[in-house]
Amino acid sequence: MSRGAGGMAAGGGGGRPPGPDPALEPYVQTRIFKIIVIGDSNVGKTCLTFRFCGGTFPGKTEATIGVDFREKTVEIEGERIKVQVWDTAGQERFRKSMVEHYYRNVHAVVFVYDVTKMSSFTNLKTWIEECNGHAVPPLVPRVLVGNKCDLKDLIQVPSSLALKFADAHNMLLFETSAKDPQESQNVDAIFMCLVCRLKAQRSLPCRDTEGWPAQPQPQPRRLDEASGKGSCPC
Ligand SMILES: Nc1nc2c(ncn2[C@@H]2O[C@H](COP(=O)(O)OP(=O)(O)OP(=O)(O)O)[C@@H](O)[C@H]2O)c(=O)[nH]1
Ligand SMILES: [Mg+2]
Questions:
Q1: What contacts 116, CB < 8 A, 6 or more positions away?
Q2: Can you tell me the distance from the alpha carbon of 27 to that of 24, in angstroms, rounded to the nearest whole number?
Q3: Ligand 1 midpoint to CA 47 (Å)
Q4: pLDDT per position as a tens digit, 12-37
């Protein structure tokens, strides 16, 4: 099984910086973690995924149709991991034919609500039911994200309420803003926290590894890719 070689580097003492041996680089397979982002239309799923993968807030967005597919390669403890983010559609008519694909072989789920819109918070239970209805294993980590915290005067969902809900569903809560550049580290932390948990969990199969069921995937629209290095924020 190929893994990152962070462990090897730790005791190396040969003056080589930690991380995979460059000579072995072509042979080190990159693990891919599939993370889906779910929630009502207009809560900011596209903007959050854009902020994480591209580092910016998109000037203008349109309702997502089906799924948009973004990627970012991160490095944690010497292992390069490809984070494959599925930005799903919140509108029923744009998602109904895709729902099975969203949940198939998913590694982690991000539930998003808009802190300025109570209905997007109360609807979370429907999104959780949908997720549960697709037999997502309990080991698959889930987090809750309250977006649009920059709109301070318009907040409708108190943090205390969100925290209670997150606790009841065994999720971590992040409150953030895809728009505010000062919050960008917080947005990164959402995904990095999940990646760290997945990395620590079990040895997930690598790309091209036998035994990993092939996914009939929709033709992905790859919008951007960025590389980032990070240490575990957890
Ligand atoms: N103020 C503020 N506006 C935001 C933020 N995130 C997103 N928006 C705005 O909210 C609107 C919807 O954002 P999207 O990211 O397209 O929403 P979505 O959840 O992807 O919607 P669907 O694709 O229809 O499911 C856009 O006008 C964004 O500019 C934020 O953090 N703060
Ligand atoms: Mg969208």
A1: 148, 151, 154, 155, 156, 157
A2: 5
A3: 6
A4: 333 455 555 666 665 667 899 999 99
Full domain range(s) for residue 171 = 31-200
CB 78 within 8 A of CB 161: no
Whole-model pTM: value is: 0.81
Q: How far is ligand 1, taken at its centre, from the CA of residue 91, in Å?
A: 13
Q: Number of folded domains in the chain?
A: 1
Of the residues 57, 61, 93, which should be mutated to test ligand 1's pocket, given the most ligand atoms within 8 Å of the CB? 61
Interval 70-90: pLDDT, tens = 999 999 988 999 999 999 999
How far, in Å, is the centroid of ligand 1 from the Cα of 212? 34
Task: Specify the CATH number for the domain of residue 97.
Answer: 3.40.50.300
Q: Any idea which ligand is nearest the CA of 154?
A: 1
Q: Which two tokens stand for residue 170?
A: 């065994």
**ipTM passes above 0.95:** yes
Atom of ligand 1 nearest to the CA of 90: 25
